[in-house]
Amino acid sequence: MPTTDVYREAEKRWRHSLQEPGEELIDFELADDRVRRVDVAADAPDWLRGAQLYALCGVDGFRFLRCPFSPEEELRWSHAALAAWTEPEASESNLDLTHAGERGALWAQHEAAPSSSALRHLSWVTLGYHYQWSERRYDEARRSPFPPALGALGADLGRAVGQPLRPEAAIVNYYAPRSSMGGHCDDAEPCQDAPIVSLSFGLSATFLLGGPSRHAAPLAMRVRSGDVVVQGGASRGCYHGVARVLRGTAPARLREAASAGGGGGGGDDLRGVAEWLERGRININVRQVGPEAGWDEDPDAAAAVLAGGRRCRDDG
Ligand SMILES: O=C(O)CCC(=O)C(=O)O
Ligand SMILES: [Fe+2]
């Protein structure tokens, strides 16, 4: 039985962009024989009909959708992640522990005084069922309404890739340039049959997708602003993470759209969002937590379901 943490070794190399011979980054903008184009589902919503959808050869259930959003939509979703969803009524956050007194109106604080606002210390919020990091579980009693527009978006994307889900929880991650997220697998959701749908905005990143244990070497891929990663099927249980967020890689279209006053959210607001995205990356990953619809209607039954999360193999 091998004991080497192959994932971790690759993570260290990719963090410094060192590629071993034969180990190459997958870029869905370029031809690559490890990648194949697939059709969006016949019942995809209209706005996703022409989307560029890809699969990885030999990786069950993984899908990559190249940015299906207009620049205005990228700004609007990012604005929601920075403003509405950081409000204490909407989310739990890392700031609850360290900056509880400054949790309200974070985006307004940032716009008034960017260099001193608590937004600089924001690294995550949770929406809907709030993931409990230390217990690696969800708690029936810790839940906020799931943002309806994000629920509709997650459901649309799941349908378009032929892997429907009922969005019930999301983690929103806020990254600075050069930052990373260590390899992990998302095993707290009792329902592991529905995919995780993961949206990214702002700076590009090197994303790693490994296997069901840390013994498998991960594939590395470039994820850019607006791209959507779907971990369904067998890939739902695979180790993954972010080896590095890449400085200076935000697309010019974001600033251009914000300057043109697009998006209907107020030109100034969106200019601030475009500026934030030039120095940061937002990742919004949407999950279904429970099995069949209605699983959470009775609190005791829901608590029993939530206690039964699966554990990924961590035999590295
Ligand atoms: O930022 C990303 O692309 C991945 C985030 C992730 O895997 C998670 O929050 O579980
Ligand atoms: Fe994850």
From TrEMBL:
<keyword id="KW-0479">Metal-binding</keyword>
<dbReference type="GO" id="GO:0008198">
    <property type="term" value="F:ferrous iron binding"/>
</dbReference>
<dbReference type="GO" id="GO:0035515">
    <property type="term" value="F:oxidative RNA demethylase activity"/>
</dbReference>
<dbReference type="Pfam" id="PF13532">
    <property type="entry name" value="2OG-FeII_Oxy_2"/>
</dbReference>
<keyword id="KW-0408">Iron</keyword>
<dbReference type="InterPro" id="IPR027450">
    <property type="entry name" value="AlkB-like"/>
</dbReference>
<feature type="binding site">
    <location>
        <position position="240"/>
    </location>
    <ligand>
        <name>Fe cation</name>
    </ligand>
</feature>
<dbReference type="GO" id="GO:0035513">
    <property type="term" value="P:oxidative RNA demethylation"/>
</dbReference>
<keyword id="KW-0223">Dioxygenase</keyword>
<protein>
    <recommendedName>
        <fullName>Fe2OG dioxygenase domain-containing protein</fullName>
    </recommendedName>
</protein>
<dbReference type="InterPro" id="IPR005123">
    <property type="entry name" value="Oxoglu/Fe-dep_dioxygenase_dom"/>
</dbReference>
<feature type="binding site">
    <location>
        <position position="186"/>
    </location>
    <ligand>
        <name>Fe cation</name>
    </ligand>
</feature>
<feature type="binding site">
    <location>
        <position position="184"/>
    </location>
    <ligand>
        <name>Fe cation</name>
    </ligand>
</feature>
<dbReference type="GO" id="GO:0005737">
    <property type="term" value="C:cytoplasm"/>
</dbReference>
<keyword id="KW-0560">Oxidoreductase</keyword>
<dbReference type="InterPro" id="IPR037151">
    <property type="entry name" value="AlkB-like_sf"/>
</dbReference>
<dbReference type="InterPro" id="IPR004574">
    <property type="entry name" value="Alkb"/>
</dbReference>
<dbReference type="GO" id="GO:0035516">
    <property type="term" value="F:broad specificity oxidative DNA demethylase activity"/>
</dbReference>
<feature type="domain" description="Fe2OG dioxygenase">
    <location>
        <begin position="166"/>
        <end position="290"/>
    </location>
</feature>
